[in-house]
Amino acid sequence: MIGRRMNRRTMLGGLLAGALGSLMTGPTARGDQSGPRKRFVVWFTPNGTIESAFRPTGGERDFTLGPILEPLAPLRDHLLLFGPSGAADSDFRKERGLSIRVSEDGPSGGHGCSKLLTGRLPALYEGNEMASGPSVDQVIAAAVGKDDYLPSLELGVRSGAPSSRDHLLYAGAGQPVPPESNPSAAFDRAFAGLATVDPDAERRKNRRREVLRFAREEAKRLAPGLGGADRQRLDAHEAALADLAARLDARVACAPPALLHASPGDWEEGWDSYDKMPDVGRAQMDILATALGCGITHVGSLQWTAAAANARHPFVDAPEWHHELSHHVLREGDLSVDPDVTRKVIDVNRWYASQLAYFLGRLKEMPERDGSSVLDHTVVLWCNEMSDGFYHTHQNMPFLLAGSAGGHFRTGRYLTFENRAHNDLLTSLCQAMGLSLDKFGDPSFCDGALPGLV
Fold first, then answer.
1. Is 454 in a helix, a strand, or coil?
2. What are phi and psi of 85, to 5 degrees?
3. Which of 17, 100, 110, 360 could form a disulfide with 394 if both were Cys (CB 3.0 to 4.6 A apart)?
4. Are the C-beta atoms of 21 and 215 separated by less than 8 Å?
5. CB 14 within 8 A of CB 206
6. 360 and 440 both lie in a single domain
7. Which residue, 50, 49, 186, 171, is CA-closest to 117?
8. HEC profile of 66-118
9. What is the structure's pLDDT at 19?
């Protein structure tokens, strides 16, 4: 009896080992993991905001979105919002909330982006002022994307940097990572070779299916003659085999985005005009969402224009330069002296919020193999190079997180902080993506991850 039981155990072990070995030999499709992987996205818009229209009102869970963020209302439960504790303060230069503070002088100011995602003061490199360390997206990509087809994917919409200090992303000190703003070039980078079928890969996939089918049939044949412990072991093996079979067949829709795929000639000339920003943005969002959903990359960014950008937004009845508009929202106790300018700045930022809502919706409609969505395993950081366009302040920055990073963050909340450095938020993002970092950026200006996010 003991011999028979040992023989069966050996056979069961061999069944699972054989199925696993056959399934895992040779190159595997990107995304075949034991569980859904996390994704991280940087979402950048420029020229500050209008606090009274951006900040929610109410408490941690019963908050109401302001006019700028209203397009995100259907995704409210996926958001994590930040604001200053205490009553509103008319001094826009006072440090409160989450601030960019990377020197003893306190919060900095101006349009430069070098501190935003690096958490460090800039320095001169070959006569140009640039970041003195890597940005958070590139640190995360180096850790989680090293085995991906693309460790990270950087896209933009009219995102050329006017000066060296306005670069947003950095691989290291003095090493900017420029985004690709041409949808045709972005498409080629992300999907080159995706449409080709590898016959050898197809044969391997079919062979793995046959091995799994045989192993599951053998497991069922053995089941009636097994005792309690062996039956439990067999059930566990059967569940593992079923999961492997499901993962082999599961595929997110990885067809290249139709907008580009149908008419690539549309992007050969004239694509960089202001009136095409909605079309270019939609194409870039589709490219990034598909690349994330297919496992081509797990770290990405979408940079809408650039720091101090003078883009026009005629499609929301704001044809003036965005930078100039932001400079003319002169406030008296957070009230503009020019209601028409205020409306235009709000409408521009509201339009950016609607684009984020579209992007999040694309991620939400993409299924994972466990029944969840790609959005469930993603966190998006919406950031800006400053908080207020008139005062050029870095106090009370308009940060927003969308997505829980696989349940790491408790979303659907509005949190307030009296005075914390934004490096603490960057640390929280690294930890959400599985990095064992206690501090990010300049450690002198970082207290660790923000409390209350998880």
1. coil
2. -80, 155
3. 100
4. no
5. no
6. yes
7. 171
8. CCCCHHHHHHHHHEEEEEECCCCCCCCCCCCEEECCCCCCCCCECCCCCCCCC
9. 37
Q: How many CB atoms lie within 10 A of CB 333?
A: 8
Helices (H), 163-198: 183-191
Q: Which structure tokens are listed for 28?
A: 């595997």
Which residue, 235, 253, 271, sits at the end of a domain? Answer: 253
Q: Are residues 382 and 247 in the same domain?
A: no
Question: In this predicted structure, what is the pLDDT of residue 236?
Answer: 67
Q: Report how far residue 222's alpha carbon sits from residue 177's, in angstroms, rounded to the nearest whole number.
A: 57
Look at strands 128-130 and 123-125 and give their pairing: antiparallel
In a 10 Å sphere around its CB, with 0-12 CB exposed, 13-18 middle and 19+ buried, how is residue 61 labelled? exposed
Cβ(62)–Cβ(324) below 8 Å = no
Q: What is the DSSP string of 379-398?
A: EEEEE-S-SBTTTTB-SS--
pTM: 0.80
| Residues facing residue 253 across a β-bridge | none
Domain co-membership, 293 together with 174: yes
Sign of CA dihedral 278, 37, 172, 122: positive
* Residue 451 maps to a domain: no
Token output for 144: 């989680």
Number of compact structural domains in the chain: 2
Name the stretches of the chain with pLDDT < 70.
1-34, 86-95, 161-162, 193-209, 211-212, 229, 231, 233-234, 236-271, 330-337
Rounded CA-CA distance 125/140 in Å is 24
- Residue 329 phi, psi (nearest 5): -85, 70
Domain interval for residue 119: 39-197+257-445
Nearest to 184 by CA among 280, 77, 107: 280
212 and 264 in a single domain? The answer is no
Q: Which of 253, 284, 300 is the last residue of a domain?
A: 253
Q: Are residues 79 and 150 in the same domain?
A: yes
Regarding whether 174 and 204 lie in a shared domain, the answer is no
Strand 97-99 versus strand 413-417 pairing type: unpaired
Residue 35, both tokens: 């569980």
Residue 313 DSSP SS3:
strand
What would the two tokens of residue 307 be? 């720091």
Beta bridge partners of 81: 400, 414
Query: Strands across the sheet with 299-304, in order?
Result: 153-157, 299-304, 39-44, 378-383, 400-402, 79-84, 413-417
For 21-55, write each residue's pLDDT tens digit: 333 332 233 333 467 999 999 999 999 999 999 99
Residues 223 and 340 in one domain: no
Same domain for 308 and 226: no
